[in-house]
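Consider this today:
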Amino acid sequence: MFRMSKTLDVLTLFHKPSISASVRVQNLLKQASAQASQTATEDQATDHSPQNDTVTREPFELEVTEAAPTPDQLNSIFDYLGGGVAGELVKGAASQSDALRKVKEDGNAFTRPVLVDWARGQAVIGDKESEILKVLKAEGK
């Protein structure tokens, strides 16, 4: 008998290595991903206390990209964040349609870092650690 393995949720970090905030977020996510995927030791298996405070979710796949999001991805990110964030997400954008146009013309107009949890419909702009930790601790839908 075999069991089908569950596919991991994908968290995407839109990243720019030259931005210190982006590097901080990447390091936090790498640490959280490693903690989420650790297997319990025999001692931990009998200890029911929380083993780490950063992550309480199932293991996830971390995708780090320096590319700008596709138009479909950008629309999803807008849906996750709600209205009024066009200028925060894309430099100089006045609206969602303006943001889409600007990113198509110049991918560097897209603000980084941005963390997106596609499976749970969540996104965080910048290095707001408390919001990132909420995404990492989120219960499954």
Notes: The beta strands are 9-14, 60-65, 114-117, 122-125.
